[in-house]
UniProtKB/TrEMBL annotation:
Regions that span the bilayer: none
Name of the protein: LysR family transcriptional regulator
Coiled-coil segments: none
Chaperone among keywords: no
Gene3D superfamilies: Periplasmic binding protein-like II, Winged helix-like DNA-binding domain superfamily/Winged helix DNA-binding domain
Keywords annotated in UniProt: DNA-binding, Transcription, Transcription regulation
UniProt-listed SUPFAM superfamilies: Periplasmic binding protein-like II, Winged helix' DNA-binding domain
Domain of life the protein comes from: Bacteria
HTH lysR-type domain segment(s): 11-68
């Protein structure tokens, strides 16, 4: 333990910020501007980082620098560490959204961005013009290890699942949605606007977040169809909700999709939005955070901002 403390004490933690910006920008001059140092100082920091890791980190390519394999591996880790450090040193401070430059890190699905993104962006522009937002897209591994990840970011937006029963985990409801079926307008395998469970069983599917092994999985499609007694014939698996309608358009495939997202793209992509048989469970999207942030003034403001963005999304939908 003493050796670990001594090693940490000997590190220049300013290098963490420089490493993050070098990886983000892949350019020494722009990284220097982001951090507020001279270009020679940034170059010197890159040299120190290269010596420390025994790796080039930024490698010259045809169009500029590219990340080395190690830098690619470090990219996610340094984002998490810097975000956690910023929250640590912001603890106990007052929070004024009009002048704060705090960065909030949220774990979200791209569906959530489709529903809340515009409204949250406008709200930040109006009320907190210097606050930064880092949206990390959901991956199954992140959600599987939610107890560790929730401590390293400001929170996540997701429907409740069993693995979220963690001591200290708090949540509040943001908005609701429901599952619908989408098919191409010219789908040759489905000539009705009221599909049956038998139709769902025989058609080919586009499935978001569907694991390749094991069934059922935690993926929403798997959970819903398992409740119907159906094991779908999955033709396309994709790590995205927003990609699903593009992979249904012009084909005879079918997909379950959140109604809010389906209605956004149906007209543009030539899709039919159909009632889903079997009375699927409603979608309840909640904001989750660790109780350690309960009294953090900035986090309290963030929770209010997310709630306001959700209200605006509801209002725009009904207008």
């Amino acid at each position: 333990m003493k050796r670990a403390v001594a090693h940490l004490a000997n590190l220049d933690l300013n290098l963490l910020v420089m490493l993050r910006e070098l990886i983000r920008e892949r350019n020494v001059t722009r990284a220097a501007e982001r951090v507020g140092v001279t270009q020679p100082a940034a170059s010197a920091a890159l040299s120190r980082l290269r010596r420390h890791f025994g790796d080039e980190l930024l490698v010259r390519g045809k169009g500029g620098y590219v990340l080395s394999p190690l830098a690619t591996q470090l990219a996610e880790q340094v984002e998490v560490v810097c975000a956690a450090a910023e929250r640590l040193f912001a603890a106990g401070e007052s929070f004024d959204p009009r002048v704060s430059r705090r960065e909030f890190t949220l774990l979200v699905a791209d569906y959530t961005i489709a529903v809340l993104g515009e409204h949250l962006a406008r709200l930040l522009d109006e009320k907190a013009p210097h606050v930064r937002l880092h949206l990390r897209l959901v991956r199954e591994a992140m959600v599987a290890d939610v107890e560790e990840n929730i401590r390293l970011m400001d929170g996540m937006i997701a429907p409740p699942v069993g693995r979220f029963r963690i001591p200290g985990l708090q949540s509040t409801e943001l908005f609701r949605d429901r599952w619908v079926c989408i098919v191409a307008a010219e789908n040759r395998e489905l000539d009705t606007d009221t599909p049956t469970l038998d139709d769902l069983a025989r058609l080919s599917w586009v499935a978001p977040y569907q694991a390749n092994q094991g069934y059922p999985t935690a993926a929403p499609l798997s959970q819903q169809l398992t409740a119907f007694g159906i094991r779908p014939n999955v033709a396309v698996r994709v790590e995205s909700y927003q990609a699903v309608p593009h992979l249904v358009a012009g084909t005879d495939r079918i997909a379950l999709l959140q109604e809010r997202l389906a209605c956004q793209v149906a007209g543009r992509l030539g899709l039919r939005v159909l009632e889903c048989p079997g009375n699927p469970e409603p979608i309840v999207e909640r904001f989750w955070w660790h109780g350690n942030f309960d009294d953090d003034p900035g986090h309290v403001w963030l929770r209010g901002a997310l709630a306001e963005a959700a209200r605006r999304a509801d209002a725009s939908r009904s207008s």
